[in-house]
Design goal:
By secondary structure, the chain is of the alpha/beta class. The chain contains 14 helices and 18 strands. The protein has three domains: about 1-50; about 70-250, Rossmann fold (3-Layer(aba) Sandwich); about 270-385. The strands form three sheets. It has a nine-stranded mixed beta sheet with strand order 3-2-1-4-7-9-8-10-11. Strands 13-14-12-15-18-17-16 form a seven-stranded mixed beta sheet. The protein has a two-stranded antiparallel ribbon with strand order 5-6. The longest helix has 17 residues, at about 35-55. The chain is flat and about 70 Å long. The protein starts with 7 loop residues before the first helix and ends with a strand. The model has no long low-confidence stretch (mean pLDDT about 90). InterPro entries: PG_1098_Fer, SAM-dependent_MTases_sf, Thump-like.
Length: about 375
């Protein structure tokens, strides 16, 4: 594809069709003999993804890769966040993919090496980096071969392992990833004291702590309350007892929640029926597993061991999540046709079943929360309005 797709007339056609239905475009013949309609549609898709996911690439002369590479790439928001506190002389990305993480990380390092086994993808990344005047050593090899040949040491190794199987299993074991991290960890630590591994948000935090050595920190990164990735920071000087878990919700006003893994095991929650305020942790905090730590740190009581809702009579404004003013109501108080945001946790009815049973609709400013305390199943009517 390369330079032909960058022809001014082809680019003009792409930009003119950003809002055209892509299925209907694919049925048409390409107006350009040397560029297929599939290639054109791929560039339109790339620009559409870039608008939301990495707007810095909305620039003349950028080439976009196939869909899979667009999906697997980090977002600009998470990549910029990662790059914030990392710097040094030399950095290697062993699985660079479309190079979004590497691009932002590279701003803080003098020497940058990108290793990628897909030669076409690497050519695209090399071209795009050239548009920005960004330099790197682009190496078209698989990671194992690079490691076998490599004699250099790096200040930072970055790694985003690929899934081996095409099935979208919900459980991810590290040995099912390529490369197998527990197998190569010692090898990586020989060439760098600091390794960062990006993993799926589906991987369990306590599982990671049990199978990876020298974890300094696990960062759970959400964007607007959707957990996007887990970042594992490995440092050769760290003992397991020192592992820190940090929950971050980007593009929100919420504070970061951080604790040592061992603290959670000794933390204890107190329980209570609902008080004046109800606290719902954000999804990054829920993923962290720091349920008793939340209770202790913010002096909140839990409703039930399996319901991660918290309550107090005092307003704790630093809490990382939603804070609602709540009161218990009787089911008879729910009027047919009313609108609520419905939440069901640790309760037999799903939100859809609740809507059907009480003939209510989604929406509005208020919340109806169906849950249980240690004593009873309850319904809470709640609001973000505190007046």
């Amino acid at each position: 594809m390369g330079h032909k797709i960058l022809d001014a007339k082809v680019q003009e056609f792409i930009n003119a069709n950003l809002k055209t239905d892509l299925h209907s475009l694919l049925l048409k013949k390409s107006p350009f003999p040397e560029v297929s309609m599939q290639e054109i549609v791929q560039q339109i898709k790339g620009k559409k993804v870039a608008q939301k996911k990495f707007p810095y690439l909305l620039k003349d002369g950028i080439i976009f890769p196939p869909n899979l590479n667009l999906e697997q790439a980090s977002s600009q928001a998470t990549a910029e966040f990662k790059a914030k506190n990392l710097s040094g002389k030399s950095f290697v990305d062993l699985t660079s993919g479309f190079g979004i993480d590497a691009y932002f990380l590279s701003k803080n390092f003098e020497e940058v090496t990108l290793v990628e086994q897909n030669s076409e993808l690497l050519e695209i990344v090399k071209h795009n980096w050239g548009i920005f005047g960004r330099k790197a050593d682009f190496i078209n090899e698989n990671l194992e071969h690079f490691l076998a040949e490599n004699k250099e040491k790096f200040d930072l190794i970055y790694l985003d392992p690929a899934r081996r199987d095409s099935e979208k299993n919900k459980k991810f074991l590290l040995e099912d990833l390529s490369p197998n991290l527990p197998e190569i960890q010692d090898e990586l630590l020989k060439i760098s004291d600091q390794i960062i591994i990006k993993l799926s948000p589906l991987i369990d935090v306590s599982y990671l702590v049990s199978v990876i050595k020298n974890i300094a920190e696990i960062q759970i990164i959400a964007v607007r309350n959707e957990v996007k990735e887990l970042l594992v920071f490995i440092n050769s000087n760290i003992e397991k007892e020192e592992t820190r878990i940090t929950a971050i919700n980007l593009e929100s006003e919420e504070n970061v929640f951080s604790f040592h893994y061992k603290e959670e095991r000794s933390a204890v929650s107190e329980y209570s029926e609902p008080l004046q305020y109800l606290y719902i942790p954000n999804n990054a905090v829920l993923k962290s597993g720091g349920f008793n730590g939340v209770s202790e740190k913010f002096a909140l009581k839990k409703l039930h061991p399996n319901t991660h809702f918290y309550t107090s009579d005092n307003y704790s404004e630093d809490f990382p999540g939603r804070i609602l003013k709540a009161e218990i109501i009787d089911s008879k108080d729910i009027k047919k046709g009313e609108k609520f945001n419905i939440i069901s946790k640790n309760h037999p009815l799903t939100p859809d079943e609740i809507k059907k049973k009480y003939k209510i609709k989604d929406g509005g400013n208020g919340y109806l929360i169906f849950t249980q305390t240690q004593k009873n199943k309850i319904i809470l009517k709640a609001s973000l309005e505190f007046n």
